[in-house]
Amino acid sequence: MKYYLIAGEPSGDLHGANLIEGLKKADPEAEFRFWGGDRMATAGGAENLHKHYKETSFFGIVQVLKNLKTIKRQMLECQTDVAAFAPDVLILIDYPGFNMKMARWAKEHGIRTFYYIAPKVWAWREWRVKSIRRYVDKLFIIFPFEQAYFFEKGLQPIFEGNPLVDAIEARRATLPTPEEFRRRNGLDERPIIALLAGSRRAEIRDNLPLMALLSERFPKHQFVVAGVPWIERELYEQHMAGSSIRYVCDQTYETLAVAEAAVVTSGTATLETALLGIPEVVVYRTLWFQVKLQPYVLNVKWVSLVNLNLQRESVAEIIQSDLSVERAEHELRAIVAGGAKRERMLADFAELQAIIGGAGASERFAARMVAELRKENTK
Question: Could you tell me if 268 and 356 are in contact, meaning their C-beta atoms sit under 8 angstroms apart?
Fold first, then answer.
């Protein structure tokens, strides 16, 4: 069968690549075409990559408004390419701003559509549920708590685990020893606190200064910020100037694996940190009125995927509008070695691992997709 996949950011490229590998196993005759990135190109053939996510990623309302003409042109280009390929199914991977519009177009043109990694409508923009019901043929979810939510909304989601577990397990065997990591990056023997300041410039600008202040209060630890390769080092250095924070690039899992604890901005990184078994504090700085509006704008009690999946507060979430460091210091001291909350948090993370499920989710999702398509084709 023929599969057209659309991913618009690095995480989607990763999960799309693992899904392609699974689809090849479940359907040896599979043909692919996709929007994605280097990982999907490696899995599905570079000749089948029509557009790289680096050309299509626009984050934040300002960037979107500035690039409306480009986004509209890319949408038309994508529709033309999907129509020319004539797939048996269009698989949309996260990236809801673009992909929900593609779902509507596909429905109007009689193209079967699967949505893989559902939009986070349980947190915000709940009005998209109506569009999912109308335009998506099968919805594939990666968080257990989403099952009850979507069922209540009249949908029958499919859950086979979380593909993030596959990504972590694939990397675990290649992670360096603590000694190797320290030697490679010129670090001393003090325990490491990993800093994950976000993957966007605004997040780094807002969160890294707090982390720099926090690092000054822990002289017996060394703080290491894990930079992302698509953001220049100079931005990190600007916001940690005057601190002793060390910078490494494109070594997020490596840094977490050797860390005693971590300070993490909200997002997928909170779940990655927990699945690697590293106690963490979640911090996120935003505008003061957004902090005040949070209970009215968000449909959930927590922002971290750890707490959302456990359905209780396990990791501290410090959502703030100023650079007050006192609570962050208190919570971090509670989870470093000997801290009052450390063992409880590690037990919570073991429970989280059981809830999320083991490795092999990508292959299970792929097998389920192929089975659903074959079932439809035999009707």
Answer: no
CA distance 267 to 305: 7
pLDDT bucket at 57, cuts 50 / 70 / 90: low
pLDDT tens for 81-92 read 999 999 999 999
* Separation in Å, CA 215 to CA 209, 246, 335: 10, 11, 15
Give me the sign of the Cα torsion angle 143, 144, 149, 150: positive
What are 5's two structure tokens? 């996949």
Work out the angle between the directed axes of helices 96-108 and 128-135 (0-180°, nearest 10).
40
Q: Identify the three-state secondary structure at position 7.
A: strand
Residue type, 275: L
Starting at the edge strand found earlier in the chain, the sheet holding 31-36 runs 49-52, 31-36, 2-7, 89-93, 113-116, 138-141, 158-159
Please name which of 114, 96, 108 lies closest in space to residue 371, comparing C-alpha atoms: 114
Q: Quote the radius of gyration of the chain (alpha carbons, Å).
A: 21
Residue from 308, 229, 257, 262 nearest 10 by CA: 229
Residue pointed to by tokens 């990559």: 49
Q: Is the pTM of this model over 0.85?
A: no
